Amino acid sequence: MVKVVVMGVSGSGKSSIGSALAQRLEVPFVDADDLHPPANKLKMASGSPLVDADRWPWLDAVGAALAAESSIVVACSALRLSYRDRLRVAAPDAVFVHLHGSDALLTERLGARSHEFMPTTLLGSQLATLEPLEPGEAGFVVDIAPSPQQIVDEIVRQLPEEAAR
Question: Which molecular function GO terms apply here (predicted)?
Answer without folding.
Answer: ATP binding; gluconokinase activity
